[in-house]
Amino acid sequence: MAAQLGLQRRRALAWLGSAAAAGPALLLGGCGGGGGSDASGSLAGLVAASGTASATTATPTTSTSSSGSSTTTGSSTSSSSSSCTALPGETAGPYPADGTNSSSGSTSDILTSSGIVRSDIRSSFLGTTTQAGGVQTTLTLTLLNTSSSCAPLSGYAIYLWHCDRDGNYSLYSAPTESYLRGVQVTDSNGQVTFTTIFPGCYSGRWPHMHFEVFQSLSTATTGKNSILTSQLAMPSAVCGAVYPYATGYTSSVANFAAVSLSTDNVFGDNTSAQIAAMTPAMSGSVAAGYTATATIGIAR
């Protein structure tokens, strides 16, 4: 854990140093979306108007998809994985909406909002009900304990968020929206499933999704309580299949052509084993949508 925190601190300091040299605009946009809209007012206002979530009434979602070496039979899933990779900690970026940062003086903590515990995260639930357009992606995450023979970790909360197909983040560069953010609680197999869209690629970053892991739903009230903050790297082949051919991803084509995993400021210093673990396995098509699985290894 100390090594993960040290790595996160070094990355954060390095990013802040380079961003400060480039000016205020980069400090806000370096890890964020493609828009520069001012989130003042709507950022904290939308969340404040939504009320407070009840952390004791959520029911863990049972997944019917498998990740890693897990096997699935009907609604019962058993893990048969004998090895797993501990994922490195990564920056949450400037757009987590988890109470750890502010934009134009407003601080947003969507983790305390009623409705944040949900499986389908495509629609906004604060202020509007706009559904984010894009290629449907069903993502199953399996949380495993790397210190205990990769045993499933149940009862943990996972917060997932990412940009829309235009590269914008809800509550920030898409300030009136709250889509593409949600929390699920791991079931007895350590699994959660989210229905979302394939994220766009914005300038300077490899296509990715953010996530935070919490000990329980009751502790998932701020990103400061997370036991792991990291990111998932979208598979190159799927990016190449989606961006040129799916509606609405036009800007992602040139952005994706200009970036690589090795030069990305988040994934660039990870080992090949870590990158493999951070890249979801995906199948499907633009027309039918994609199914994705990833294993999150964490030492507990």
Automatic annotation (TrEMBL):
Biased composition (Low complexity): 54-89, 99-109
GO MF terms, alphabetically ordered: ferric iron binding; oxidoreductase activity, acting on single donors with incorporation of molecular oxygen, incorporation of two atoms of oxygen
Intradiol ring-cleavage dioxygenases domain segment(s): 148-205
Signal peptide annotation: 1-27
Record-linked Pfam families: Dioxygenase_C
Gene3D superfamilies: Aromatic compound dioxygenase
Region (Disordered): 54-109
UniProtKB keywords: Dioxygenase, Oxidoreductase, Signal
Family annotation (InterPro entries): Intradiol_dOase_C, Intradiol_dOase_core
Name of the molecule in the record: Intradiol ring-cleavage dioxygenase
Record organism: Variovorax gossypii
Source organism phylogeny: Bacteria, Pseudomonadati, Pseudomonadota, Betaproteobacteria, Burkholderiales
